[in-house]
Amino acid sequence: MPLLSIAIWLPIVAGVLLLAFGRDDRAEAVRWAALIAAVASFAVTIPLVTGFNVGTAAMQFAEKHAWIARFNVWYTLGVDGLSVWFVLLTAFITVIVVISAWQVIEERVHQYMGAFLILSGLLVGVFCAMDGLLFYVFFEATLIPMYLIIGVWGGPRRVYAAFKFFLYTLAGSLLMLVALIYLYYKSGGSFDILVWHRLPLTMQAQVLIFFAFFFAFAVKVPMWPVHTWLPDAHVEAPTGGSVVLAAIMLKLGAYGFLRFSLPITPDASHKWAWFIVALSLIAVVYIGLVALVQHDMKKLVAYSSIAHMGFVTLGFFIFDAQGRGNELAVSGAIVQMVSHGFVSGAMFLCIGVLYDRVHSREISAYGGVANTMPKFASFALLFAMANCGLPGTAGFVGEWMVILGTVKVNFWIAAAAATTLIWGAGYTLWMVKRVYFGAVANEHVRDLVDLDRREFAMLAALAIAVLAMGLYPKPFTDVMHTSVVELLRHTSIPKLAH
C-alpha cells in the first residue's frame, strides 16, 4: 500500500473538495468532513512508525514513479529515521488544528478547513520527497495556503504580515533552486537526492551550494538575523495558523540542513560550522533576552520558538577537532524539533483559548485566571513548564541532549547554550505569574468560563504527548538512531573532488 502517497494526497484531495463544494450554510457538515479527513490522514501515518525497521538507515515505504521522464524527474518518496516522526507530527497537529477551529471560525469555514488540509498534505510531501525538484515543489507550495491563512483570517495587520512571511521565505528559496539545478547537471542529469549525497564536489562548489541552502533554510528556521518575519506572522495569524507555523513549518528549514546541507556539502559544513554555531548561540541568548521584554503573549512565545530552534542548528553543526559530528547532539536536536512541535503548538493553543474569550493577547489584560479557569490553568502551567525545559516534560529531553553533546566538544559553547534554561524560566514564569496567578484582575477575567469538552480534549492530547516524550523518549531516539549514525559516518568522510 502506498502509505506515503496516501498521507500526502488524502488531505490535499479532501481540502480541494471542501473548497469546491463547501458552503457557509453547511458549516457543521464541513467541520465534520474536515475532522474525518484529518483523522484518516493521521491514521495512515501510524503504520509508518509501528512498521518502521529501526535496524537500517535505508529509505523505507519507498515509492518511485515517472513524473517528467524527459528530464529524469521522478515522483520519489521515502522516509528514514530523520523524517518519519515529522510525518506523524504533521498529521497529528492537523487534527488538533481542525478541532481548535470548531467554534472559533464562523465565516468561510470550508475555505479555512480546506487550506489547512491542503497545507498538511504539502508539509508531509516535504518530509517524504526524495527527488530534488519534487522537494522544491512541495517546499514552495506550502507558502500558498499559509499566506492565505494569515492574510484572510489574521489580525488587523494581516496583509503586512502575510506579505512579509511570503517575501522572506520565497527570496531565500530562489538560491536553493539555483543550487538544485547545479547539482542536477553535476550529477549527469539526476534529481535523486541520494545520488547527490555521493557526489564529489570541490570546496569552492561546496561552499557556494552550502550558502545557497543556508539562505533558504535559515529563513525557515528562522535563524538570527533573518527571523523578523516570524513574530509578525505569529501575532497576526489565527490560532491554527500559529500552531502549524510553530509546530511544523519552522521544522522545514532544520530538516533541510539534515537532508541537504550536511550530506551534500560535508566539507563546507565543517568549514563554516563556527558561523552556524555563532548564529545559534545568538538566537539562544539574545533572542531569549528579547522574549523577556515582550508584553504580547504571542510575541513572547514566538521569540521563545526562535531561541529553542537555536538548539536545533547548534546540535547539527557542533563538530569535534577531527570534524566528526556528535551523535548525542544531533539526536537531541531532532528530539528538540519534535518536542517543540508539541510544546509550542500547545502554548499557542492556550493563548488562543484566552483570546477567544477576552479578545486580547496583552499580558496586562489578565491576572488570576487560575481562579476562574482551574482546568485550563493546569494545562497551561504544564505546557509553560515544558517550555522552560522542566525534567519529565518533552521540552527537557532534546535541549539536555544537545547540551551534553556540546559539552564533549566545547564546554564554553555548552555553557552559553545552557543559559536558555535561565532565560526560558524567566520569560515563561513571568508570563505565568502575571496571567494565571494572583487576585482576579478585572471583570473580563471574573467572567471567564473554563474549558469545554472540545478544548479539554485537544489540550489533553497534547499534554499526553508532552509527558510521554518527557518521561520515556526511548521510542523516539530508537527510530532515529541508525539514520543519525549513518549521517554522521557519511559527513565525516571527505568528499572533495580532485
Task: Please give a structural write-up.
This protein is mainly α and 498 residues long. It has a two-stranded antiparallel sheet with strand order 1-2. 73% of the residues lie in helices and 3% in strands. The N and C termini lie far apart (44 Å). 56% of the residues are buried.
What keywords describe this structure?
498 residues; mainly alpha; two-stranded antiparallel ribbon; globular
Structural topology:
Blueprint (H helix, E strand, L loop, with lengths): L2 H19 L5 H24 L9 E9 L4 E7 L4 H17 L8 H20 L3 H10 L1 H11 L4 H29 L6 H5 L5 H18 L8 H8 L2 H26 L1 H6 L1 H20 L4 H20 L10 H32 L10 H4 L1 H15 L5 H14 L3 H8 L1 H17 L6 H4 L6 H19 L2 H18 L7
Antiparallel strand pairs: 1-2
Helix pairs in contact: 1-2, 1-4, 2-3, 2-4, 3-4, 3-11, 3-15, 4-5, 4-6, 4-11, 5-7, 6-7, 7-9, 7-10, 9-11, 10-14, 11-14, 11-15, 13-14, 13-20, 14-15, 14-18, 14-20, 15-17, 15-18, 15-22, 15-23, 17-20, 17-22, 18-19, 18-22
In short:
By secondary structure, the chain is mainly alpha-helical.
How many helix segments?
A: 23
Q: What string gives the helices and strands in order?
A: HHEEHHHHHHHHHHHHHHHHHHHHH
Are there runs of 5+ residues with pLDDT below 50, and where? none
Number of strands: 2
Strand percentage, roughly? under 5%
Structural class: mainly alpha
